[in-house]
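Consider this record:
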Amino acid sequence: MDIREFAQEFQDNIKMAVEMGNTDYDTEIAKGILEYMEDNGEVNAPEICAFQKTRTRVTAYDYNDEAESLDLFYLVKSDTLLGKVNNNKVQQGFNYLMSFYREAMNGTLLRSVSIENTDEIAEVAKLVQSTKGAINQLRIYVITNGLTDPTCVPSSVESDDNDFIIEYNVWDMQRVYQQHNIRSGKEKVEIDFPTEYNTELQCLKMSEENPFVDAYMAIIPGVTLAKIYKKYQQILLEKNVRTFLQFKGKVNKGIRKTLREEPDMFFSYNNGISTTASEIDVREVDGGLYITRLYDWQIVNGGQTTASIAASMNDRDVDLSKVFVPMKVSVIRDVDNCDSIVKAISTTANSQTSIKNSDFSANEPYLVDLEKFSRSEWVPNGNSKPYCKWYFERTRGQYLDQLAQLSGFNEKSFKIEYPKNQKITKTDIAKFEASWNLQPYNVCRGAEKNYALFVADIKRERPVVTANYFKHIVSKGILFTTIDSIVKSKKLGGYKANMNTYLMSSISFLSNKSLDLTYIWEHQRVQQEVTDKVEELIPMVWNHLVGNSSTGNQSSNVGEWSKKPECWNRLKLKLSDYDKFGEELMQAETNDDGTYLNEAQQNRIQEAEAIEPNYWFGLANWAKTRDLLTPLERKAAFNFGTMRSRNRPIKTLKQAQFALKIVEKAEELGYQG
């Protein structure tokens, strides 16, 4: 599709999202563009927080403490499809954001506007203030669903106090369309060194003939490598086994130290990068070979080196002109086995940073199995034929990738089968599971940190993924989304994400983690009693999170307070004043495939429940005095008597079958009750 068709589809998807989610049109436009920016890897996890007054505005923000970067975004909406956004509007957008930053930093942002301390924008203002001395770059983004003049973007400048670099950026529909094409494979990473980067790479070719790979050794200037990465971001590392670990790891801190203190020694200290390409253009000059162009270029090892150098482009303490990087290029000749060859290169040649199992999390059997059931389990539709499914996105951008490969009827069919609002990601699942498992404080630590903890739990517990397991995860997602809608309707002013996870954990706590999730899956909605309970809990949970110390909150910083286990432990004490859910809302036993017990199975449970307590006590005493049955069976008989005397039901088929087996065995041995 051309850019106009893409823009029309983008707009149609925004309208659909607004209708289905009853959300704001501008917010959905911003979310749509930010999704492509996240997919590109340029930004981490932006949060929408629209705010405006006369000369100060912001649409979203993103603070990445690991990358030492604060990002601010402002949406300039186009009035027409692919409408031209003039340079003055773009510049005005930059001015709005810089004014927002300055006013947040000096404490004047919320003056003359009606803002409560509990509103989210107040927390954002505190966040901006907390970044003083902690960032090396402030990135200002104007985002738009129109088209802009590429020359309107100012060059990067140093802040007034020389503490950090201010970088200006624009993401318009041309940029979004380019990202779409790269993701869909319609635009390959093609590097034209002399035209785009004013350089050629001198190289040596391995003389030995190899039917699979042509190998070259070269040296690439650090500036060139950084510019290429800035343009293509994570697309350049698609076949790499991990993403940029920022400057927290020991190796990456060492890379930055070398870049700052000994840039001319970088070539000697660093092992370089290993890359692959589908084709290469070289030219010979005075007996020497020079690489002029690479097609479908990928960095399969050395992603940390590449991203570290790119992250230092705006670091005034780094002179990238002195940085040179050893580079190996493997041009894959065996097209049929390209993927397996690239994978072998990636996994065996890596020596920059040790690869941990978590680096391969996208290929974990757990996630692969979830994906399998996601593609096979149809959403119930009453008496009608099911027509859609829930799409689990195992790798970032997978949904957009698959959609981009389709057109016409196939594209429409895919959208019907997998509605965009029924897409769930790895970090979504981690959020649902942590909330359900009574760990809301981990969710409040952020998507990436919570996901890392989730992966550790999965590796330790190794749950078996079945169709029923997948359905229950989706049910938890429906519950979480329902809570989100209720909280949003209350217009509390902020901390919606914190409220959502704490309310989800509260529902789990009040149901002993036994809520009937099968009901939610089969009806694709939450029980009315549960939504009523959420409504009831909201005032208490809100007051617990944002109130003063006497009501629970031990910190003026709500974000930090909600990250503490103590916050949840204190909330649990307050939940003891609320009624727990009744048995009618508890999960009934199901078979392994998630189906409810059939009539015969239910009859077996009823048969076991019909046995009187005295019968069980008599059986246990009879067997003990005659030394009959096993000790386990005698103990179980007494326990069944105790259960029934207290009117506790036999809930599971397994329990019922065991009870009836004891009765049958005792009666065969002569017990008459």
The chain is about 50% helix and 15% strand. The chain has four domains: 3-179, 188-354, 366-585, 599-668.
